[in-house]
Design brief:
The structure is a homodimer. Chain A is α/β, with parallel strands linked by helices. Chain A has two domains: 260 residues, Queuine tRNA-ribosyltransferase-like (TIM Barrel), CATH 3.20.20.105; 97 residues, no CATH class. The first copy, chain A, is 42% helix and 18% strand. Chain A has 15 helices and 16 strands. Chain A has an eight-stranded parallel sheet. A three-stranded antiparallel sheet of chain A has the order 1-2-3. A three-stranded antiparallel sheet of chain A has the order 7-8-9. In chain A, helix 11 runs antiparallel to helix 14 and helix 14 packs antiparallel against helix 15. The termini of chain A are far apart. The C terminus of chain A is likely disordered. Chains A and B meet through helix 13 and helix 14 of A and helix 13 and helix 14 of B.
Amino acid sequence: MSFEFTIDVTDGRARSGRLDTPHGALETPVFAPVGTQATVKAMRPTDLRDLGATLILSNTYHLYLRPGDELIHDLGGLHRFMGWDGPILTDSGGFQVFSLSDTRRIDEDGVTFKSHLDGSSHRFTPEASIRIQENLGADIIMMFDECPPPNDYEYVKQSLARTHAWAERCLAAKTRPDQALFGIVQGGVFRDLREESARYLIDLALPGYAIGGLAVGETKAEMAQVLDWLEPILPREKPRYLMGVGAPEDLVNGVLRGIDIFDCVLPTRIARNGAALVPGGRINLRNAQYTADTTPIDPHCDCYACATFSRAYLRHLVLANEILASILLTTHNLRFLLRLMEDLRKAIRKGTLAEYAKRFLQNYEHQMTIDE
Amino acid sequence: MSFEFTIDVTDGRARSGRLDTPHGALETPVFAPVGTQATVKAMRPTDLRDLGATLILSNTYHLYLRPGDELIHDLGGLHRFMGWDGPILTDSGGFQVFSLSDTRRIDEDGVTFKSHLDGSSHRFTPEASIRIQENLGADIIMMFDECPPPNDYEYVKQSLARTHAWAERCLAAKTRPDQALFGIVQGGVFRDLREESARYLIDLALPGYAIGGLAVGETKAEMAQVLDWLEPILPREKPRYLMGVGAPEDLVNGVLRGIDIFDCVLPTRIARNGAALVPGGRINLRNAQYTADTTPIDPHCDCYACATFSRAYLRHLVLANEILASILLTTHNLRFLLRLMEDLRKAIRKGTLAEYAKRFLQNYEHQMTIDE
């Protein structure tokens, strides 16, 4: 199966192109909405398609626990199960094991953890993660890694050795030719560890490289620094995926530094809290100032919510805890980010990314405290 | 403004035709989904239109309390506020005052009650109900009535006198020519009281008549009995509205007895509990038997949920408490009832209603315990 990655045009360190997958091609740079439990919360697959989504991320940890990866396999795989015939990416379950499960014990072989749903005991190893991801059947699958706190040098160094050993075991365990296994560069905020991790994984000749362990507590400057270190090292001809990052300014900063793939729960999660992305920041519809506001969330947005409803109506829905509030704010926030990615791709093709990014980030910096 | 009601064809006591409103014509018999808080839960207006909904009911009590009828008026009325440009019906608030508010005191002039939201004290009178409904601006508005327990003859009789006096006050208070005020026949399960109520309201020459106080504790046989008593008395040339009734068998039985308009929270409420309407009854997707069921809810249904997803996936969404479960089950249940109404209208036009109803109700009786 082909996972050809074609870079059509570059602009500075940024690149735009396409990644072929068994379920169709992705235009890059691309933002993937997150469908944790085999659904992007409050969205139907047809809505995601209408919004311009092409790649969906789903979570191995959650689907393993419920409804079970074997059931999904028996029902024809994740694409058929969730009614999404486009490309899907699954994470390895590692991040959730470390962030969600109640108690865990790490050894060199794997991780034993308790389910956040019912406290039952489970064990993930690199082999188990690959087996589960093969049962799910996503187009892009991820190596099982440890995601350590980014600022403890000794711990990160020790964790890195384990993560690299696990990468080799993942590669050895992989059997499906129709899935691309991406490596995950770890190393916290430390240049030598990040570079060592990148070089180790590059030697494995994987079809794509993710940068993990960011957006977990380090500063924005540290995140940019890590990307700046890795950009010249990671192979130019392979797709680069910045995991779990999706704030608008982070997407712009990531694309400027050569990132091709992003995913994040931010647009969907803040939507369910009543917040909407707008040029320059975000607004929270709960605020009293929107009580009689007849304008849409964003007059320049082409989404259904902005074409149809006032902020006053959306505020009412949020305060009344109505499902439609989640539907409409998710619609808008996803469209906002997917349109941003369209704009970034256009700017790269026109060779105007630096200007675009400068304007965007200035606007953002001046206004990002709009509501919060 | 015209509220012309045209009966095109009759079949037994059933009728099919159209009711003109300032926001378009309704084909009758019609089922109105309920949008309590200015949204049919989990549905966008465009979805409702796609499902074949033509009339939406919204609740005066809820909208008066939040966001406030004056705000909705100032924002251009309920149609614009909720993005629904078709006909809307508002109830009077009476039923909710008696069923939802914490404490209440009824006197001849009106009802004092405490908000179910914050315990604040409010007062509804016939004049207040009409003023609120005029602020909301629905096409069809309802008289303010008391909805008493249906089996206490003395109480129902005494309540009826008050309800009739209130009907006259509603009529006197009404000022907008672009709204039709419907009367509500009360009288519990008592023939003399129901007939007295109908005759009293008929004398007021209202543009439509509702039958209230049913589906509140009486038996199915008592409901049918009340409809049988009223059918020959209510003016044939006026639309008849059976309030709060929407179980599939009740729709069939109501249409057989000359009812033109129905509304009910049933399809949307049971959807949010994981239940789906199917021919012959309903199923609850929580049940373990659907764990690996690759069939749709109803193979004969033309809705998006049935065209796209398996019962196994829907069960997963219900158990995972995902918003998409509510969206898809609401989609299906509304389509199920709206398609039933289409079938009933067709059967009336073809003169085959009796057969259709017999087959439908037999099927229903044999299978209605499918899951519950």
